[in-house]
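I had to read the description of the data format several times before I understood it. The format is easy to grasp once an entry is in front of the reader. For illustration, here is how one protein appears when written out as sequence plus structure tokens:
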Amino acid sequence: MPSLAESFNEVMAVEGVRVAALVDIATGMIVRSAGEPAGDFPAAAASMAGEARAARTMLGRGRAGGGDLDEIALVASGRLLLSTVLSPRFGEGLLLFVDLDRARVNMALASLQIGRLAAGILA
């Protein structure tokens, strides 16, 4: 089982990743990060945590026909922001929030790779 630092190194090795962070969904606070965050990264992380809370409310967590939230993607002209929900063992859970350089990344492949790596982050 890889350590948290090793898991972050694997995420950072995905083509185009600039920054990766664990974000508390309940508060929007960054728990741990790797890479060089831009000035707006903490605000973006908090915003994605808010989106996760809103999406969970809309999906009706535990309600028939609802479902669990797996991932949120935000696409901008130069960035791809991916948030993968990690198993909610602690409170509302954590997000693996990743900022990617859109010019250097295949969006579908990055989502697949990060989703696979996310499963091992808290293992």
Q: What stands out?
A: The mean pLDDT is 87. Residues 76 and 102 are 8 Å apart (CA to CA).
